[in-house]
Specification:
The protein is α/β, with parallel strands linked by helices. 32% of the residues lie in helices and 14% in strands. It contains 10 helices and 13 strands. It is an enzyme of class 3 (hydrolase).
Length: 376
Protein backbone atom coordinates (compact mmCIF):
# COMPACT_ATOMS: atom_id res chain seq x y z
CA UNK A 1 0.00 0.00 0.00
CA UNK A 2 1.43 3.37 -1.02
CA UNK A 3 0.27 6.53 0.70
CA UNK A 4 1.21 10.07 -0.31
CA UNK A 5 -0.13 12.60 2.14
CA UNK A 6 -0.67 15.56 -0.16
CA UNK A 7 -4.33 15.54 -1.19
CA UNK A 8 -4.02 16.33 -4.88
CA UNK A 9 -1.14 13.88 -5.32
CA UNK A 10 -2.71 11.08 -3.35
CA UNK A 11 -2.41 7.85 -5.32
CA UNK A 12 -3.36 4.74 -3.48
CA UNK A 13 -3.40 1.37 -5.17
CA UNK A 14 -5.23 -1.07 -2.97
CA UNK A 15 -5.45 -4.72 -3.93
CA UNK A 16 -8.37 -6.49 -2.30
CA UNK A 17 -6.76 -9.91 -2.79
CA UNK A 18 -7.01 -11.85 0.44
CA UNK A 19 -8.86 -9.11 2.34
CA UNK A 20 -12.23 -10.80 2.69
CA UNK A 21 -14.99 -9.33 4.79
CA UNK A 22 -18.35 -10.73 5.74
CA UNK A 23 -20.70 -9.58 2.98
CA UNK A 24 -24.10 -11.23 3.30
CA UNK A 25 -24.91 -11.77 -0.38
CA UNK A 26 -22.63 -14.46 -1.72
CA UNK A 27 -24.13 -13.90 -5.17
CA UNK A 28 -23.58 -10.14 -5.17
CA UNK A 29 -22.39 -8.67 -8.46
CA UNK A 30 -18.66 -8.30 -8.93
CA UNK A 31 -18.94 -4.52 -8.68
CA UNK A 32 -20.93 -4.75 -5.45
CA UNK A 33 -18.44 -7.14 -3.89
CA UNK A 34 -15.53 -4.94 -4.91
CA UNK A 35 -17.22 -1.83 -3.53
CA UNK A 36 -17.78 -3.52 -0.19
CA UNK A 37 -14.18 -4.66 0.12
CA UNK A 38 -12.90 -1.23 -0.92
CA UNK A 39 -15.11 0.53 1.62
CA UNK A 40 -13.51 -1.55 4.34
CA UNK A 41 -10.01 -0.75 3.14
CA UNK A 42 -10.75 2.98 2.78
CA UNK A 43 -12.01 3.07 6.37
CA UNK A 44 -8.55 2.21 7.70
CA UNK A 45 -6.96 5.52 6.63
CA UNK A 46 -9.65 7.78 5.18
CA UNK A 47 -13.34 8.60 5.19
CA UNK A 48 -15.69 9.32 2.28
CA UNK A 49 -17.93 12.38 2.51
CA UNK A 50 -21.62 12.01 1.68
CA UNK A 51 -24.62 14.33 1.30
CA UNK A 52 -28.29 13.36 1.16
CA UNK A 53 -30.21 14.35 -2.02
CA UNK A 54 -27.05 16.10 -3.22
CA UNK A 55 -27.86 15.86 -6.94
CA UNK A 56 -31.64 16.20 -6.88
CA UNK A 57 -31.77 19.66 -5.35
CA UNK A 58 -29.95 22.11 -3.11
CA UNK A 59 -30.17 25.51 -1.46
CA UNK A 60 -32.34 27.55 -3.85
CA UNK A 61 -32.31 25.18 -6.83
CA UNK A 62 -33.59 21.82 -8.07
CA UNK A 63 -33.26 19.46 -11.04
CA UNK A 64 -30.16 20.99 -12.62
CA UNK A 65 -27.83 18.57 -14.44
CA UNK A 66 -24.56 17.68 -12.72
CA UNK A 67 -25.05 20.23 -9.95
CA UNK A 68 -24.61 19.89 -6.22
CA UNK A 69 -24.00 22.46 -3.50
CA UNK A 70 -20.90 20.52 -2.48
CA UNK A 71 -19.55 20.76 -6.03
CA UNK A 72 -20.31 24.49 -6.14
CA UNK A 73 -18.07 24.96 -3.10
CA UNK A 74 -15.27 22.42 -3.72
CA UNK A 75 -15.38 21.55 -7.42
CA UNK A 76 -16.31 17.94 -6.61
CA UNK A 77 -19.52 16.12 -5.87
CA UNK A 78 -19.62 14.22 -2.59
CA UNK A 79 -18.20 10.70 -2.80
CA UNK A 80 -21.46 9.30 -1.41
CA UNK A 81 -24.82 10.54 -2.71
CA UNK A 82 -28.00 9.86 -0.75
CA UNK A 83 -31.38 9.11 -2.33
CA UNK A 84 -34.65 7.86 -0.80
CA UNK A 85 -37.25 5.23 -1.70
CA UNK A 86 -40.02 7.15 0.12
CA UNK A 87 -42.14 7.56 -3.02
CA UNK A 88 -41.98 3.89 -3.98
CA UNK A 89 -45.17 3.16 -2.01
CA UNK A 90 -48.29 5.00 -0.92
CA UNK A 91 -48.31 6.93 -4.20
CA UNK A 92 -50.07 6.59 -7.55
CA UNK A 93 -48.56 4.25 -10.10
CA UNK A 94 -47.71 7.26 -12.26
CA UNK A 95 -45.89 9.02 -9.45
CA UNK A 96 -43.96 5.87 -8.54
CA UNK A 97 -42.82 5.45 -12.15
CA UNK A 98 -41.83 9.12 -12.38
CA UNK A 99 -39.80 8.81 -9.19
CA UNK A 100 -38.12 5.68 -10.51
CA UNK A 101 -37.12 7.49 -13.69
CA UNK A 102 -35.54 10.41 -11.79
CA UNK A 103 -33.70 8.20 -9.30
CA UNK A 104 -32.56 5.73 -11.97
CA UNK A 105 -30.71 8.51 -13.80
CA UNK A 106 -29.28 9.74 -10.50
CA UNK A 107 -27.94 6.32 -9.53
CA UNK A 108 -26.52 5.48 -12.96
CA UNK A 109 -24.91 8.90 -13.37
CA UNK A 110 -23.28 8.60 -9.95
CA UNK A 111 -21.96 5.12 -10.77
CA UNK A 112 -20.59 6.25 -14.13
CA UNK A 113 -18.80 9.21 -12.52
CA UNK A 114 -17.27 6.80 -10.00
CA UNK A 115 -19.34 7.85 -6.99
CA UNK A 116 -21.42 5.80 -4.57
CA UNK A 117 -25.18 5.78 -3.89
CA UNK A 118 -26.75 5.17 -0.49
CA UNK A 119 -30.50 4.72 -0.11
CA UNK A 120 -32.57 5.67 2.91
CA UNK A 121 -36.22 4.62 3.12
CA UNK A 122 -38.80 6.89 4.68
CA UNK A 123 -41.35 4.12 4.31
CA UNK A 124 -44.98 5.28 4.22
CA UNK A 125 -47.01 3.13 6.60
CA UNK A 126 -48.58 0.38 4.47
CA UNK A 127 -51.36 -0.36 6.98
CA UNK A 128 -52.56 3.12 7.95
CA UNK A 129 -52.46 6.81 7.14
CA UNK A 130 -49.82 9.01 8.70
CA UNK A 131 -46.94 8.58 6.27
CA UNK A 132 -43.59 7.47 7.68
CA UNK A 133 -43.87 9.37 10.94
CA UNK A 134 -45.78 8.04 13.91
CA UNK A 135 -48.93 10.11 14.45
CA UNK A 136 -51.00 9.39 17.53
CA UNK A 137 -54.55 8.40 16.68
CA UNK A 138 -53.69 7.85 13.02
CA UNK A 139 -50.72 5.51 12.73
CA UNK A 140 -50.86 1.76 13.20
CA UNK A 141 -48.05 -0.32 14.69
CA UNK A 142 -47.51 -2.18 11.45
CA UNK A 143 -44.30 -4.19 11.75
CA UNK A 144 -46.28 -7.10 13.18
CA UNK A 145 -48.67 -6.81 10.21
CA UNK A 146 -46.05 -6.90 7.43
CA UNK A 147 -43.93 -9.74 8.80
CA UNK A 148 -44.47 -13.28 7.41
CA UNK A 149 -47.94 -14.45 8.44
CA UNK A 150 -49.14 -10.88 9.05
CA UNK A 151 -52.27 -9.46 7.46
CA UNK A 152 -50.26 -7.06 5.26
CA UNK A 153 -47.39 -9.32 4.30
CA UNK A 154 -48.59 -9.81 0.72
CA UNK A 155 -48.89 -6.04 0.35
CA UNK A 156 -45.38 -5.68 1.71
CA UNK A 157 -44.11 -8.19 -0.84
CA UNK A 158 -45.52 -6.01 -3.62
CA UNK A 159 -43.69 -2.98 -2.23
CA UNK A 160 -40.47 -4.96 -2.13
CA UNK A 161 -41.07 -6.01 -5.74
CA UNK A 162 -41.15 -2.31 -6.67
CA UNK A 163 -37.77 -1.86 -4.98
CA UNK A 164 -36.41 -4.97 -6.69
CA UNK A 165 -37.62 -3.80 -10.10
CA UNK A 166 -35.72 -0.56 -9.55
CA UNK A 167 -32.59 -2.41 -8.42
CA UNK A 168 -32.71 -4.48 -11.62
CA UNK A 169 -33.13 -1.35 -13.78
CA UNK A 170 -30.07 0.72 -12.86
CA UNK A 171 -27.92 -0.67 -15.65
CA UNK A 172 -25.11 1.62 -16.79
CA UNK A 173 -23.55 2.01 -20.22
CA UNK A 174 -20.99 -0.67 -19.37
CA UNK A 175 -23.87 -3.14 -18.97
CA UNK A 176 -23.33 -3.44 -15.22
CA UNK A 177 -25.89 -2.83 -12.48
CA UNK A 178 -25.05 0.12 -10.26
CA UNK A 179 -24.44 -1.00 -6.65
CA UNK A 180 -26.34 0.74 -3.85
CA UNK A 181 -26.07 0.83 -0.05
CA UNK A 182 -29.64 0.15 1.17
CA UNK A 183 -30.47 1.38 4.69
CA UNK A 184 -34.02 0.38 5.68
CA UNK A 185 -35.81 1.09 8.99
CA UNK A 186 -33.24 3.62 10.19
CA UNK A 187 -33.37 5.28 13.63
CA UNK A 188 -35.46 2.36 14.86
CA UNK A 189 -34.49 2.97 18.49
CA UNK A 190 -36.47 6.22 18.50
CA UNK A 191 -40.25 6.61 18.48
CA UNK A 192 -40.77 9.15 15.67
CA UNK A 193 -41.19 6.54 12.90
CA UNK A 194 -43.92 3.89 12.87
CA UNK A 195 -41.24 1.17 12.99
CA UNK A 196 -39.72 2.76 16.10
CA UNK A 197 -38.94 0.98 19.33
CA UNK A 198 -42.05 1.99 21.27
CA UNK A 199 -44.29 0.77 18.43
CA UNK A 200 -42.52 -2.49 17.60
CA UNK A 201 -41.34 -5.47 19.60
CA UNK A 202 -37.75 -6.60 19.26
CA UNK A 203 -38.92 -9.92 17.77
CA UNK A 204 -41.11 -8.26 15.13
CA UNK A 205 -38.41 -5.81 14.13
CA UNK A 206 -35.88 -8.59 13.63
CA UNK A 207 -38.43 -10.77 11.79
CA UNK A 208 -39.24 -7.98 9.32
CA UNK A 209 -35.58 -7.10 8.80
CA UNK A 210 -34.63 -10.70 8.10
CA UNK A 211 -37.59 -11.20 5.78
CA UNK A 212 -36.82 -7.98 3.88
CA UNK A 213 -33.24 -8.95 3.10
CA UNK A 214 -34.09 -12.59 2.34
CA UNK A 215 -36.98 -11.70 0.05
CA UNK A 216 -35.03 -9.08 -1.91
CA UNK A 217 -31.88 -11.18 -2.18
CA UNK A 218 -33.08 -14.79 -2.39
CA UNK A 219 -36.56 -14.53 -3.91
CA UNK A 220 -36.39 -11.39 -6.07
CA UNK A 221 -32.74 -11.81 -7.06
CA UNK A 222 -31.42 -8.39 -6.01
CA UNK A 223 -27.64 -8.71 -5.99
CA UNK A 224 -26.47 -5.08 -6.17
CA UNK A 225 -27.41 -4.05 -2.61
CA UNK A 226 -25.18 -3.63 0.42
CA UNK A 227 -27.32 -3.58 3.58
CA UNK A 228 -26.78 -1.00 6.35
CA UNK A 229 -28.10 -1.15 9.93
CA UNK A 230 -28.40 2.26 11.61
CA UNK A 231 -30.01 3.04 14.95
CA UNK A 232 -30.14 6.57 16.25
CA UNK A 233 -27.75 7.46 19.08
CA UNK A 234 -29.75 5.97 21.96
CA UNK A 235 -27.16 3.42 23.04
CA UNK A 236 -24.18 3.56 25.36
CA UNK A 237 -22.78 0.05 25.12
CA UNK A 238 -22.21 -2.74 22.64
CA UNK A 239 -25.08 -4.74 24.13
CA UNK A 240 -27.48 -1.81 23.74
CA UNK A 241 -26.33 -1.30 20.14
CA UNK A 242 -27.03 -4.97 19.39
CA UNK A 243 -30.41 -5.10 21.15
CA UNK A 244 -32.33 -5.26 17.83
CA UNK A 245 -29.50 -6.54 15.69
CA UNK A 246 -30.83 -9.14 13.21
CA UNK A 247 -27.59 -11.11 12.95
CA UNK A 248 -24.32 -10.97 11.01
CA UNK A 249 -25.88 -12.86 8.12
CA UNK A 250 -28.36 -10.01 7.57
CA UNK A 251 -26.16 -6.89 7.91
CA UNK A 252 -23.21 -5.59 5.87
CA UNK A 253 -22.66 -2.13 7.37
CA UNK A 254 -22.91 -1.10 11.01
CA UNK A 255 -23.95 2.53 11.28
CA UNK A 256 -25.47 5.23 13.45
CA UNK A 257 -27.48 8.40 12.94
CA UNK A 258 -26.44 11.08 15.44
CA UNK A 259 -27.37 14.74 15.30
CA UNK A 260 -27.94 15.34 19.01
CA UNK A 261 -24.31 14.96 20.11
CA UNK A 262 -22.93 17.12 17.31
CA UNK A 263 -24.60 20.45 17.96
CA UNK A 264 -28.36 20.10 17.48
CA UNK A 265 -30.14 22.92 19.38
CA UNK A 266 -26.73 24.35 20.22
CA UNK A 267 -25.87 21.41 22.46
CA UNK A 268 -22.65 19.48 22.00
CA UNK A 269 -21.59 16.25 23.66
CA UNK A 270 -18.70 15.25 21.46
CA UNK A 271 -17.34 12.88 24.08
CA UNK A 272 -20.61 10.93 24.01
CA UNK A 273 -20.74 11.01 20.22
CA UNK A 274 -17.20 9.70 19.93
CA UNK A 275 -17.91 6.95 22.45
CA UNK A 276 -20.85 5.72 20.35
CA UNK A 277 -18.85 5.86 17.11
CA UNK A 278 -16.12 3.85 18.80
CA UNK A 279 -18.59 1.20 19.99
CA UNK A 280 -19.82 0.18 16.54
CA UNK A 281 -16.54 0.90 14.75
CA UNK A 282 -14.81 -1.61 17.02
CA UNK A 283 -17.74 -3.99 16.64
CA UNK A 284 -17.41 -3.86 12.85
CA UNK A 285 -13.71 -4.70 13.11
CA UNK A 286 -14.47 -7.68 15.34
CA UNK A 287 -17.24 -8.97 13.08
CA UNK A 288 -15.41 -8.24 9.82
CA UNK A 289 -18.03 -5.74 8.75
CA UNK A 290 -17.89 -2.18 7.42
CA UNK A 291 -18.79 0.74 9.71
CA UNK A 292 -20.15 4.14 8.63
CA UNK A 293 -21.49 7.33 10.19
CA UNK A 294 -24.74 7.00 8.26
CA UNK A 295 -26.31 10.37 9.19
CA UNK A 296 -25.26 13.48 11.03
CA UNK A 297 -24.99 17.21 10.55
CA UNK A 298 -25.70 20.61 12.05
CA UNK A 299 -28.76 22.37 10.67
CA UNK A 300 -27.92 25.80 9.20
CA UNK A 301 -24.25 25.23 10.16
CA UNK A 302 -24.06 28.32 12.40
CA UNK A 303 -20.64 27.22 13.70
CA UNK A 304 -18.24 28.46 11.02
CA UNK A 305 -15.55 25.96 12.05
CA UNK A 306 -17.85 22.97 12.56
CA UNK A 307 -16.31 20.89 9.76
CA UNK A 308 -12.75 20.85 11.07
CA UNK A 309 -13.12 21.59 14.79
CA UNK A 310 -16.12 19.33 15.46
CA UNK A 311 -16.67 16.74 12.74
CA UNK A 312 -13.16 16.12 11.40
CA UNK A 313 -11.53 16.22 14.82
CA UNK A 314 -13.98 13.59 16.04
CA UNK A 315 -13.61 11.38 12.98
CA UNK A 316 -9.82 11.35 13.38
CA UNK A 317 -10.03 10.27 17.02
CA UNK A 318 -9.72 6.89 18.74
CA UNK A 319 -8.59 5.00 15.61
CA UNK A 320 -12.11 4.96 14.24
CA UNK A 321 -12.59 2.92 11.05
CA UNK A 322 -15.57 4.50 9.30
CA UNK A 323 -16.05 4.19 5.54
CA UNK A 324 -18.16 7.31 5.13
CA UNK A 325 -19.96 10.11 6.89
CA UNK A 326 -23.18 11.51 5.43
CA UNK A 327 -24.83 14.82 6.30
CA UNK A 328 -28.48 15.52 5.66
CA UNK A 329 -30.09 17.42 2.81
CA UNK A 330 -30.20 21.05 1.72
CA UNK A 331 -33.84 22.04 1.28
CA UNK A 332 -34.72 23.95 -1.88
CA UNK A 333 -36.86 26.69 -0.34
CA UNK A 334 -36.16 26.79 3.40
CA UNK A 335 -33.70 29.52 4.44
CA UNK A 336 -32.51 27.44 7.40
CA UNK A 337 -32.90 23.73 6.58
CA UNK A 338 -29.52 22.76 5.14
CA UNK A 339 -26.59 20.64 6.31
CA UNK A 340 -23.88 21.20 3.69
CA UNK A 341 -22.47 24.60 2.77
CA UNK A 342 -23.17 26.50 -0.43
CA UNK A 343 -21.29 29.50 -1.82
CA UNK A 344 -21.04 32.31 0.77
CA UNK A 345 -22.49 30.21 3.59
CA UNK A 346 -20.64 31.00 6.83
CA UNK A 347 -18.83 27.64 7.02
CA UNK A 348 -17.71 27.58 3.37
CA UNK A 349 -14.05 28.38 4.09
CA UNK A 350 -13.82 25.74 6.79
CA UNK A 351 -15.51 23.18 4.55
CA UNK A 352 -12.82 23.76 1.91
CA UNK A 353 -10.24 22.98 4.61
CA UNK A 354 -12.23 19.83 5.40
CA UNK A 355 -12.23 18.95 1.69
CA UNK A 356 -8.47 19.54 1.33
CA UNK A 357 -7.55 17.41 4.32
CA UNK A 358 -5.94 14.15 3.07
CA UNK A 359 -8.17 12.18 5.45
CA UNK A 360 -11.40 13.10 3.63
CA UNK A 361 -12.32 11.76 0.20
CA UNK A 362 -14.78 13.20 -2.29
CA UNK A 363 -15.90 11.91 -5.67
CA UNK A 364 -12.93 13.42 -7.53
CA UNK A 365 -10.59 11.44 -5.27
CA UNK A 366 -12.05 8.11 -6.35
CA UNK A 367 -11.03 6.01 -9.32
CA UNK A 368 -12.24 2.51 -10.08
CA UNK A 369 -13.98 2.11 -6.70
CA UNK A 370 -15.89 -0.81 -8.26
CA UNK A 371 -12.78 -2.78 -9.25
CA UNK A 372 -10.31 -4.92 -7.33
CA UNK A 373 -7.64 -2.30 -7.84
CA UNK A 374 -8.55 1.32 -7.49
CA UNK A 375 -6.78 4.65 -7.23
CA UNK A 376 -7.67 7.46 -4.87
Amino acid sequence: MKLITKKNALLVCLTVGHFLFAQIDKNATKETKNLYQNLKIISKNHILFGHQHALEYGHGWSNEPNRSDVKSVTGSHPAVVGIDFSDFSGRSKEQIEKTKEVLRKNVIDTYERGGITTVSWHFNNPASDGGFYWKDGISTASMSLIKPGGSNNEQYKEILKTIADFAHSVKAKDGKLSPMIFRPFHEFDGDWFWWGKSHTSREDFIAVWQFTISYLRDTLGVHNFIYAFSPDNRFNSESEYLERYPGDEFVDILGMDDYADFGRDGKYDLEAGLKKLKIFSDLAVKRKKVAAFTETGLESIPNENWWTEVLLKTLKSENLQLAYVLVWRNDTTSPTHYYAPFPEQISETDFIKFYNDPFTLFEKDLKDIYSKKFKI
